[in-house]
Amino acid sequence: MDIRALTFDVFGTVVDWRNSIAREVAAVAQKKGVKLDPHEFADAWRNLYQPAMERVRTGGRGFVKLDVLHRENLEELLPKFGLGGLSEAERDDLNRAWHRLDPWPDVVEGLTRLKKKFILATLSNGNVALMVNMAKRAGLPWDTILGAEVARAYKPQPQAYNSAVDMLGLKPEQVALVAAHNGDLVAASKCGLRTCFVLRPDEHGPKQKTDTKAEHKFDYVATSFIDLADKLGA
Amino acid sequence: MDIRALTFDVFGTVVDWRNSIAREVAAVAQKKGVKLDPHEFADAWRNLYQPAMERVRTGGRGFVKLDVLHRENLEELLPKFGLGGLSEAERDDLNRAWHRLDPWPDVVEGLTRLKKKFILATLSNGNVALMVNMAKRAGLPWDTILGAEVARAYKPQPQAYNSAVDMLGLKPEQVALVAAHNGDLVAASKCGLRTCFVLRPDEHGPKQKTDTKAEHKFDYVATSFIDLADKLGA
Q: Residues of B with CB below 8 A from A149's CB?
């Protein structure tokens, strides 16, 4: 294999969105004196994610960046959790919690090693500003930000993967997707990319039922970014 | 001023394209036993740059990335300089000389300091792969690659600047363009961006007549990226 670039799914694969969002929501709830289960809020917010992108994928609306979808979904959730009284500035700040997600503990060390051997790019449905702000805060050493906003298509649409390959100036087989989600990797594989499954058994909390193992024959299967660096000789 | 992100013109501002291209062409000419003036070749190649982009800007052809324009222009030049016998692989490699340009001596130190305080993004007419490969080789610590390919518009078209501002999720006045070219900065300023002129008096060699000084009232005027870091308190 002649892999030159690693592209990364981000939510769940690189960062722990569930605990990070719960942390931010808990702080807001405490400030407002509202009682809620912050992990339930995080799950509810994330549950609106795929349906919102699906409207864009199916042409029900033109491309809009994920910050906009997150905000629309937040508006729907706030009154249900007793947070309907948040000001515009508070809503905007809470929406930017997605820019402040924490990486899994192995990520920065693993990426730092992988960067010496490979081009590292995001291939996320998150928009550019979200990815840039997250990386600055968390110390994620991306060479560049690719993905939905640049491709103007949400994964798993082929255009999202094909656009990244084209912009990197490489052949599909010279680009690998690193992801904790079987479906994302299968879609990338159909576009000719190499595949690296990294297990994230806690992404959805203690009761996680999906993506608890590699369900297909991927090129690499790893338990962390450090394990992936070992397996890729980086 | 509340500048959050610095965006950079690259050819001439960050890297010394003229001496770098001359170095690569001289090596090819020597290998082929051809006598030529490598700086004359570099200038001739660069002279075809604006007219090639102008056809895209005016709608004479759809957007194509700069690697393609460079290659078309190279095909035109090679026979004129006695290098018409280059193989496909040799032409491809010489075209990628633009991916291997050297930074000016102050650049890496200046960017490293600036990165602690600001988001750093390219805002170049060079395509993503060109920018990524250049950065890997030269150690340019960009947070992300923006510019013509992502915007699908060549500077100085407003869309090139507006797209970068939009993708960074900032207001125009929170984004500055750093450039050694008066015209680029004037165009950015018309889109509401802040402006930083950095003098590069040797970009076009010893006889340089253009951009030998800041010709307008820019927000910052500096003699190097280190000087710029000083002036921006980074």
A: 167
